Amino acid sequence: MSAQLTLQAPLALPPTEVSPYLNRLWQDSLEGSTGATTFTLLVWEPAWLEQHLVRCGRLQGPITGLLGDDLLDAARQAVADCDLPPSTAPMDPQLAWALGRQGGDHASEDLRGRFVDSAISAHTPRRLITLAPTLDDGLPLETLVAAYRPLPEEGGAGSACGDVVVLRGGMEALRQGLGMIRPLVSQELPCWVWWNSSLDEPPEMLDALAPPPCRLVIDTSLGQPRRCLEVLVQRIGTGQAVNDLNWLRLRSWRESLAMVFDPPSRRDALNHVVQLDIDVEGSHPVKGLLLAAWIADRLGWHLVTSYHQADPGSGDHGIAAEFERTDGTTVTFRLMEVPVGITKVHPGAIMGLRLICEPEQRPPLCVILCSESGGCMRLESGGMASMELAEEVVPLPEEHEEQEMATLLGGGHDSTNPLLAAAAPLAAALLPD
Amino acid sequence: MTTILTNPLRVGLRQERVISPQCLVIFGASGDLTHRKLVPALFELFRQRRLPSEFAVLGCARRPWSDEEFRQRMQEALADEIAEHHSSWESFSQGLFYESVDLQRPEDLVRLGHRLETIDRLRATRGNRTFYLSVSPEFYGSGCRALAAAGLLADADRSRVVIEKPFGRDYGSAQELNRVVQSCAKESQVFRIDHYLGKETVQNILVLRFANTIFEPLWNRNYIANVQITAAETVGVEERAGYYESSGALRDMVQNHLTQMLALTAMEPPGRFDSESIRNEKAKVLQSAHLANEDEPWKCCVRGQYGPGGSRSRPLTGYRQEPGVDPNSTTETYVAMKLFINNWRWQGVPFYLRTGKRLPKRLSEVVLTFRKAPVHLFDAASGAPTPNQLILRIQPDEGAEIKFEVKAPGSGMRSRPVDMAFSYDESFGEPSDEGYVRLLADAMLGDPTLYTRSDEVEAAWRLYTPLLELIEDAPWQLPVHNYEARTWGPPAADNLLADDGLIWRRP
């Protein structure tokens, strides 16, 4: 974590004074600097987990909104203390809710919006607007403003490139402050809206903050699976540029699977897939469904049916489905939700993938991809001795949201990734009622 | 012909950086390069969704074309590509514009400035511009001056200028051109292009060296006996006689393409993968390089010129018989030379460079030959064990190959060499982008990593100054040897290595 180098101490202003102050700031105080012609980044930053951990005395402040190792350690400890299943990921919103029922009134300085990961500030946002709701619903709206530039080692040696606006207060106060946000968003620059929270939160705030054509960033690992996929599909359907960090974290899986079939000699096998199995951590299937949907879409499979299924051996819950290949052959799909002792940061991380192909006049091919952090013995069992086996270990992705967000900002995409746009509706259809 | 199935899982996986809104201004838009390389590369970027919707191309040349005429000419030139992607072309071509501009006329530059402002409003390109000088080299300096005088390079963050090769004719002219260019723009705005650096396999030299631990420990004078860098062409001078007569192989290929391969092969590992770190190391290694004998450069360099050759059914004319070539020309179409690099890593290791036209094969490669095993324990099937070699194939059949000894099957313990090969085609099966696609994108992204910095260009010219001076002042000391077309150059080039007990690799 590196601090944002603000040119001045953030200044607390009445909400009505923010726009005039910023205009004066650029016209007078920062004369000669026109600011970066990059983008506006608007962040919904409730940091409920961090706030509760601090309130309960499980984490030292200040509250920054950044995902640090201390926070993750405290969250993992809290999973056990709150009697949540061991498969509960630190970022699972259930943990914040469980902590919300625990007592404690430790206070700490709230620096949300004033600390920005160097990966993001290296992209020199023109304006960073952070909405920081507090646990105390009754707090009034506070607005803080400062000019900033990235640190010199981030390429920021020079004049100011942007400004920071923080809106902090109770939910009701923030709702009342929504009207001041639109005038702060330049119509000439792209605007990214990062919903850095669960998608289960009341939809009105998301709707108000991220109308098209804002480029929306969400995380479909945070929230009820049905709700996550609904938001994703609905937003893509409006033509809005939607980026899903959960989808982004699948990158190493998609790349690893594609690599298996890069050699031209293996490609024909993709036309003869008969079985696909995916194991995910805990009980959040969205990531696994997105991966399956991407494969199905790329290979032209048609979804016939999907239903809930329990593994007869272990009793683990899962989702089963049948696809039809373009030649009419059936492909069976199983997604198993596997309990684990130590989870990754986000719910529903992929543990392993198995793809079985039966090409004509060649031995069957079994592709197994395993997560770097764990084995995939379940997928390696089941009588594959007669098959050609291709096994790969998938490197762990970078799971820090700020890094992922920086990747998106660096890409600058002004439309939804077409692979995600195609996979999202199929993933939603795969999730049984 | 075998049809290679595409890998459907590979489609769309690349996470590419997206170019920010801008207008690309091409000077020399009526020339070959624009319709053969630049616009096809831009169309490819468009189809790969790497260009923003707020993008425009403004072609500039002296011819009085209209926007529509420019679009029409580009459409004709790209007919094959467009046939498969007609709707994409419809959309892409809306961003093509043309303005008749003579870079020597200040009033034209003023008009150009107004036109760019109009395009900014029309296409929302936000005053962000990349100027591409695809003009005759003598106009590089004056072109930059004209752009600067018109205020078009004033905003260092939102304007860049790309300059084609050759950048200068020798060390002195390169220095002078650098001085002019740098008086018009900051170094960070200047992109000196060498399209060889856009090749996937040239970039792969960096990855192979610095992403693997098995090579770098061996990549030095303790293990490597010599390095051969070859860029061979089967074609003759074709329609480029006018240019080639005044440049020759040394200026056309060695000073830029071969020197870039030399730099990437020999440079020290950069501290991090950013443009300045990489270009620092490239410049440093070129500054350490020198001809094997600078006092008597004719002893370490051989020049050649192809004569007639080919077969009775397909005869090939000699260079002097080519259209546009002086019948008494002494321009070299082949050059081979020996260099050393004075640093800890490479002291005493000879680097042999060769390039030529009308050679038997079209190929570019870097061959690192390792030192012999200190003791020969086994009989070698070929009489003596073959030294290990690492061969980096730049083109065609891009890939890499390692040669090493194994036990020949049978009851004895005889060794014989075998190849372990990696092929881009077999492993990936996807064609890589044309070099200009990568380089144009990088320039518009403001990423100069694959572009040559001023000190690099000067170091490259300085390296060959003794040869250029010799050719200028005493050409009889560096005679042009004749070689038959479609052979591996003059015998004198073989002698260059024979003196060291070596032979050129026959790929």
The overall pLDDT average of chain A reads 87
Please name the CATH topology of the largest domain in chain B. Answer: Dihydrodipicolinate Reductase, domain 2
Q: Given this structure, which CATH class of one domain in chain A is correct?
A: Alpha Beta
Q: Helical content of chain A, roughly?
A: 25-40%
The poorly predicted ranges of chain A are none
Q: Mean pLDDT score of chain B, rounded?
A: 91
Query: Globular, elongated, flat, extended or rod-shaped: what is the shape of chain A?
Result: globular
CATH architecture type of one domain in chain A:
2-Layer Sandwich
Give the biggest sheet of chain B.
Answer: 12 strands, mixed
**Count of helices of chain B?**
15
Characterization of this structure:
The complex is a heterodimer of chains A (433) and B (507). Chain A is α/β, with parallel strands linked by helices. The longest helix of chain A has 14 residues, at 286-299. Helix content of chain A is 31%, strand content 24%. In chain A, strands 1, 2, 3, 4, 5, 6, 7, 8 and 9 form a nine-stranded mixed β-sheet that branches. Among the domains of chain A are: 48-100, no CATH class; 251-394, Dihydrodipicolinate Reductase, domain 2 (2-Layer Sandwich), CATH 3.30.360. In chain A, helix 9 packs across helix 16 (418-430) and helix 13 (286-299) crosses helix 16. Chain A has helices spanning 18-29, 48-55, 69-81, 93-100, 118-121, 171-177, 181-184, 203-209, 225-237, 245-248, 251-260, 264-267, 286-299, 377-380, 401-411, 418-430, and strands at 5-6, 11-13, 40-44, 127-133, 142-149, 162-169, 191-195, 215-218, 242-244, 273-281, 302-310, 317-324, 330-338, 350-357, 365-371, 388-394. Chain B has 507 residues and is α/β, with parallel strands linked by helices. Chain B has two domains: 22-164, 3-Layer(aba) Sandwich (Rossmann fold), CATH 3.40.50; 197-432 and 453-498, Dihydrodipicolinate Reductase, domain 2 (2-Layer Sandwich), CATH 3.30.360.10. Chain B has 15 helices and 18 strands. In chain B, strands 7, 8, 9, 10, 11, 12, 13, 14, 15, 16, 17 and 18 form a twelve-stranded mixed β-sheet that branches. Chain B has a six-stranded parallel β-sheet with strand order 3-2-1-4-5-6. In chain B, strand 1 (22-27), helix 1 (32-47) and strand 2 (55-61) form a beta-alpha-beta unit. In chain B, helix 9 crosses helix 10. Chain B is globular. The two termini of chain B are 24 Å apart. The model of chain B has no long low-confidence stretch (mean pLDDT 91). Chains A and B meet through helix 11, helix 12, helix 13 and helix 15 of A and helix 11 of B.
